[in-house]
Amino acid sequence: MLQVTRSCLSFWLLCVLLISEISTRTSKSLKGKYVKLSKTPTKPDGQLVSIVDIMKRPLSQNGKLDLAFVMDTTGSMSSYINSAKQNIREIVQEIVTSSGSDVRLALIEYRDHSPQDRTFVTRKKDFTSSVSTMKSWLNSASANGGGDTPEAVAEAMYQTTKLSWRQEATKISVMISDAPPHGLVPSEESSFPQGSPNGHDPMQIARDLAQKDITLYVIGVEPPILPYKDFFMALAYITGGQYVPLSVPRLLVNAITGGAQEELSLRKFQADVQREIKQASTAGGSINKQQIAQTVFQRLQKSGAKSKQLVRNNKTLDGPSADAKVLATKQSMAEVRKVFKKGTTSTPFRGVGGIYGALDEVMDGDMRLGMSVGMDGGMLGGMLGGVGSGGPLRSMSPGAMIPSSSASEKLSTKESGITLEQINRLVEKGTARLPSV
Length: 437
Known about the structure:
By secondary structure, the chain is of the alpha/beta class. The protein contains 16 helices and eleven strands. Strand 1 (64-72), helix 3 (78-99) and strand 2 (102-110) form a beta-alpha-beta unit.
């Protein structure tokens, strides 16, 4: 009997040791891969999220994301403001589901300086972790005013630097714009041809953003922004961000979530890039950005490194144009003005005959554009005649109203091997921190 008891004890002791070993190994193998449940998770509609869904969520490399919306809220932007209002919960849910990130949100609205706009220049709402709070801010936003073509872009960028960004977070500023800053094309100015009356310079601020490790994404509302596209590409490029073309408001959610997912996935490669930049800087002489990018890219490619990528119509986004790269080397708007060439609309557009059907798609089934403009010239004259104070609708002609491809436009995110263009952006951002570059 004693022998049997000893055998049983030995058996149970062996089981305990085995279970303990399995638990330890499992814990180590799963470390960092799953989200710890601190409260009962629910979906936006109130339904419980299944444990299977939660366990499938990977934690991002960084774990924290600060995402600032910088929105032009002048008269021509109502559809994009409404898209943000309607989809803010989906935007956050998608980012959290795909990356497991701790997300905070901020909002900066901007219009124009007096006398062009007498409502406000900028309105800043600092970071919150509450989606409901962010939604209430967006609900309070409305499209109004604007005056002449340029808007207070410089002031909005400056306010972005004053937000309470977390040092350890992935930091992304998403600017949604359809108009240039003051001081880019003096001939279009009626008040501030030399730039911001407060002395804020977008080129200098872009480098300040890069210094603070803040990535700028510019969502360019096309076609109005097309003549200034190279300039906005340059701003984004300096900070390691991207210019995202958009002509359909309902795709705003895809643009924001895709950009956030891509930047979260790239953060883990920043250390490799910074090491190469530091070595080149220590060695003295000029820094060869292309060589640094190639070195890092080849090393990561051999290791099979993968990243998320925001794609448009299943193709990677266009990188900065040659002119945009030239602009990115300039230190001030005064230097930019000497070389900036206003672009032209190269995308085919529907003529007036197809305007009503096209507007229904571009404005997401809402004729807000027609309702927000002066109606002195009738319905069509109102749509083409002006916004807010009655100025030209971003210099758009009737034949250049709506992109012919808007109905089929698609933005999505895919995972694939790291690209040289992505590393080029990280190198540009890293070298922007060096005063000699």
